[in-house]
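Lab meeting, item 3. Inverse folding demo.
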């Protein structure tokens, strides 16, 4: 699939509540030039849960056509019902994406056996690569390593995005699943430690505003230049934390707008970054040399 830095791409929007396709082009051109290794569209950072079905398909097709094979494009494709997840996956597979990012079902709070049966049932119906996504802070459901290890044996499940900042999980899953199972950090503040413990890359919020730096950090780890990787991560750590000052993607969307690439528009119930937080985020961005 990919190694390195994958941007969890924000979805540019206009005041009239439509997707801003001119801004999408600007972002994608920037990421192509910056060395970003892959694109995740319509994940959590892309406000995938706030995009309607009809515009979702048009948007994903637009991204795939614009990228034109130059990078992998992974689409967020998850619901909290197994049947509807299968239907969404089928529809998404027809849009030309490279793979699917599937979060654990939200709100239902399934058991570990329920998670296994959910993803194994989906995997039976899908041919594209599936990256599992464990993000209990959003879903209220934590997929434990033993469940991931069971699922890793099922094609086409090829990897995991892990947003729980417990590095011991990386080592446990890597040891049990081997090198062929791909592991991606979903927590920017700990992504360097994640990769040093055996991870293949990061699906990153901060890559929206520091794509060159995130690519360079990942590349340094993969090439064994740990000193350089540590230096870059130290510079970006305040940025990573600033992106969590309010609910994602509120801060990062403001930051990308502040850099001039998009309008600072979100869909309700999300609201723009507060004035007090704007002051803090701007200071961090300036100190990191990103403005």
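The presenter then showed the designed sequence:
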């Amino acid at each position: 699939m990919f190694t390195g830095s994958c941007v969890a791409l924000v979805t540019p929007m206009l005041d009239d509540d439509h997707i801003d396709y001119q801004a999408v082009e600007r972002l994608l051109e920037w990421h192509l030039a910056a060395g970003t290794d892959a694109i995740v569209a319509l994940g959590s950072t892309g406000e995938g849960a706030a995009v309607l079905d009809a515009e979702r398909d048009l948007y994903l097709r637009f991204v795939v056509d614009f990228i034109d094979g130059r990078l992998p494009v992974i689409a967020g494709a998850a619901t909290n019902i197994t049947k509807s997840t299968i239907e969404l996956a089928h529809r998404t597979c027809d849009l030309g994406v490279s793979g699917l990012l599937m979060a654990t079902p939200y709100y239902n709070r399934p058991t570990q056996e329920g998670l296994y049966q959910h993803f194994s049932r989906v995997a039976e119906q899908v041919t594209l690569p599936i990256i599992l996504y464990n993000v209990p802070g959003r879903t209220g459901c934590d997929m434990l390593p033993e469940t991931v290890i069971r699922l890793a044996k099922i094609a086409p499940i090829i990897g995991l995005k892990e947003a729980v900042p417990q590095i011991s999980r990386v080592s446990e899953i890597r040891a049990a699943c081997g090198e062929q199972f791909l592991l991606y950090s979903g927590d920017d503040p700990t992504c360097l430690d994640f990769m040093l413990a055996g991870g293949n890359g990061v699906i990153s919020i901060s890559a929206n505003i520091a794509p060159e730096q995130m690519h360079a950090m990942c590349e340094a780890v993969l090439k064994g230049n740990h000193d350089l990787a540590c230096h870059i991560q130290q510079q970006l750590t305040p940025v990573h934390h600033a992106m969590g000052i309010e609910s994602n993607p509120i801060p990062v969307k403001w930051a990308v707008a502040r850099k001039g690439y998009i309008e600072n528009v979100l869909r309700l119930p999300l609201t723009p970054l507060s004035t007090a937080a704007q002051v803090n985020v701007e200071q961090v961005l300036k100190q990191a040399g990103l403005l």
